[in-house]
Amino acid sequence: xxxxxxxxxxxxxxxxxxxxxxxxxxxxxxxxxxxxxxxxxxxxxxxxxxxxxxxxxxxxxxxxxxxxxxxxxxxxxxxxxxxxxxxxxxxxxxxxxxxxxxxxxxxxxxxxxxxxxxxxxxxxxxxxxxxxxxxxxxxxxxxxxxxxxxxxxxxxxxxxxxxxxxxxxxxxxxxxxxxxxxxxxxxxxxxxxxxxxxxxxxxxxxxxxxxxxxxxxxxxxxxxxxxxxxxxxxxxxxxxxxxxxxxxxxxxxxxxxxxxxxxxxxxxxxxxxxxxxxxxxxxxxxxxxxxxxxxxxxxxxxxxxxxxxxxxxxxxxxxxxxxxxxxxxxxxxxxxxxxxxxxxxxxxxxxxxxxxxxxxxxxxxxxxxxxxxxx
Length: 375
Fold this sequence. Notes:
Largest sheet: 16 strands, antiparallel, barrel
Radius of gyration: 26 Å
Shape: globular
CATH superfamily of the largest domain: membrane protein fhac: a member of the omp85/tpsb transporter family
Number of domains: 2
């Protein structure tokens, strides 16, 4: 590190860098030089930040027991014009002796003209429901599933992308006792294998994939599941997902999401679940689902934020038991609300560790420790 600069050298540097009307000030030049050295070292230190990410995972609810595990991630930026890419491995084990493992990749390359998202999920889950699908019956099941998906997007113009996606799943469900088996038979619920292909249209003007503060996101896609693709039935799933972000105040963000899923000729096991925090996935199913969420992200400090959120979802169309559902019936409407606190783990990518508590109706609730905001 430089400790001193002579007045002559300082004057020469200043003369070369400034206009003739500026006067040479040795002290100011020395200070500026030290600042430049400090900034260079700071930039180098930032560039040497570890690309690895370790996040503990935790979820607990009255209806799904407690699950704990770990996620290991690796960040990489393929080129200057692309967004950070993330690769993760995770595993969770629950007090009901269930195990879920997954591998996930979200990539951006070619100056962000190409995006690939893919993953594999494996699970052996023991569920205990006090009121399964609103039938008023208690049910204990063992679910085994294997699922894989892949999506490719190409930037066609501005913030618009088009592409395709593929998905495959093998799902088995069985009761853990004779009574549960009988309930599953009465409801017509059984395991299935499905394979599908689909198209995707997406708009993405967000300033970050992981901690957006402005812009909007729209994803419209379909999956056509066919027997010829390895499945047991022909059916279609359609999804529409919109998210908006607005900055306000001193680093605060208001986020809004509208999520929809529609099915056609789908088996009951592929019906739409409730996509809201606080509810157990798969406990409530309907042919179609629409949900709205609003979340305020309040910046406490450079790396800390608080969130407060509320949402409501509705199931409509056909029920699993064949009855008709509509949003005019309050039994088919599912509110949720909650709060959380976040810590910014990777400032360069906007990745946070997120601890949240959410509540819904009928004693639905959950505590979640995970990576990232919910949307």
